Amino acid sequence: MYSARPPRLVGQKSSVRQVAKRNRDDLTEKTKLQIAKRAGWLCSFPTCRTPTIGATSDGEGEINIGTAAHICAAAPGGPRYDETMSPEERSSANNGIWMCRDHGKAIDPTDSEFTVERLREWKKPAENESMNGRMDLNNASASTGSTSIPSAARPS
Ligand SMILES: [Zn+2]
What we know:
alpha+beta
């Protein structure tokens, strides 16, 4: 069968994208996953904590409404860009914060009131909460806190 489909146009658009990409220290998919998991897949915005992942309505897949945001921007001119960071630091999980889609957008403007310090303040409790939830650390430390010697073991 003859297909008259024209070749895909790869014009200026894609070359512009490549140029833009070259100077960005983007988070890899693996790193994004790390960031999401560390936050327990919950938005790190203090009053939000929306679960960002769940099953699709047909039960056949997962839907992710979360986004890994850079704390310090991936490229010059971006929000909170820190020129003293190395590309490795900039694209590391430590420089990312897990947000729902809305809050990921909210912290994006370059004139953002959301400073590096503020985002780091959010990231820490979000990760601590997920750790405590997973390990149930509060209960664990309560039960092992006082180990008493059985009275039978004491010399009379
Ligand atoms: Zn949120």
